[in-house]
Amino acid sequence: STMRRCWLFFVIVFWSAACAIENSVEELYSELAALRSEIQSLKLQEAQLNEPRHLAANSSITPSFLLAEVEGLKQHNFDVQESMDTLWLCVCGFVASLMHAGFAMLETGACRARSASSVLLKNVMNMCVGSVGWWLCGWALAYGDQIYGFIGTSGFATSNFLQSSGSLIQPAKICEEPNCVSKMVMWFYQWIFCTTCVSIVSGGVAERARTASYLCYSFAMSALIYPGVVAWTWGGGWLSSFLGVGFTDFAGSAVVHLTGGMGALTGAIMLGPRRGRFEDPAAFEAHSLPLVVMGTLILWFGWFGFNAGSTLSLHDASTAALAAQVAVNTVMSGAVGGVTVFFLRLLQAGRYDVSGLCNGILAGLVSITAGCANMTSFSAVCAGALGGGVYCIFSSLLVKLQIDDPVDASAVHGACGVWGTMAAVLFDWGVPQGHFHGLRGWTCASAPNCEEGILGSALLAQLITVVAILGWVLSLSLIILISASLAGQIRVEQRTEEAGVDHTEHAQVAYDLTESDSWVLDCHRRCQSTGFSCMASKMQHAVSAVKAPPCST
User: Fold this and answer.
1) pTM for the whole structure
2) How far out from the chain centre does Cα 101 lie?
3) CA dist 499 to 166, 214, 404, 493, Å?
4) Strands 146-147 and 151-152
């Protein structure tokens, strides 16, 4: 029985193993069949991939469809370019608008404390009145449809800035090209140039011009005088193609700075000097050097938007590189102009002159503004250095002729504006190769076959540009100022000037100074300039009413 049990056990075990093996074999067959099926599927896919592709006869992708897609991509590219250019002009306009804060600080600090509110008022009103003049008719005269290449006749009060197309209103473009920016953004950017030109004049007539008369002149400058210059030049007028070469002024040494500087000089001559200016020069020194320095640095920063933004576009690598070149030149010319004047004044007086340093920086900046896009950085250094020398010579000439320009606006912007206009041709980076580039930047005139021997024509075009601007600004300025003078409205009364315009005409004053306070401050300034100290007091001034400062060691 035991043997039977053992055999039965082995039989059961063997049978179970056989069943398990049979099941495993079946599973292996199933897996093998699945693998074969997967291999067949992969081979089929591989064959399909290797077959050449053909468009179906009834496909919706037709040549016209493809052309439409290409045109759509082109239009998208134009839209992107226009957006980039618009953004560039807006950003540069925002930066350049800070120049108004710089002018306000510089001019206020350079004048006497008793006239600070008056100077600030004129600078703020420059923006307000200048904006109205530029909007009302300035833009139209400058960039409107011209008659005989002389003056614009369309676009008054931005009347043609918007266009209706069915139920849509779209902005008008400045040209017919598909990537052109709108007139609105160009109006905004050119508004900065217009109001900057107006602000230059305020420094030359500070502390003695009647506010009402000055505001009338500011309106005339923004609405007629400056737009007339722009119409001849940037607006496509007769100077833009004069002698087949045209003028060269990339960002405004002549168009903006010479125009404003000539207006400042004309106003300074017509008004005459401040009382006591050349009898007691120390009393008319800058009352706040911190304001002068801060204003200068803000102006320098704003100048980058002024110069680099004058590329007017930034949608390709070439224009972007040109903007970078302009920025480098702006840095170097301003820096070297400041250094030049600093050392010239140090050699002349034996003392450090902070005001001279600041004006030297501005002189260098004005000198490079016309040619910042067609000069090497070395040429920019030379232009800035010579511009500093031009400023020093003209500033000394003003003193010798007893022409009172409180902030040297005519020397910085007028004289250096003339020099910068001529330097734009003399230092053109194509001159060493016998070519001329001018406003074309990287490209020479008459490219690709660069025309040679036109430097003389370019210089003559620059000279005619300078003479035309000087004649235009001088004649119109004289008409306005002589009319105001005949009406007795050009200069404040003597007692107002002596007491300070702030205390007699303004509801608020920048500094809480009484007449004796102002006199004592002048006393300290005069005595300090001679190496002594002032011994006066308010009571002494009130009782004795002395004229000369009591100085003592």
Assistant:
1) 0.83
2) 13
3) 64, 20, 19, 10
4) antiparallel
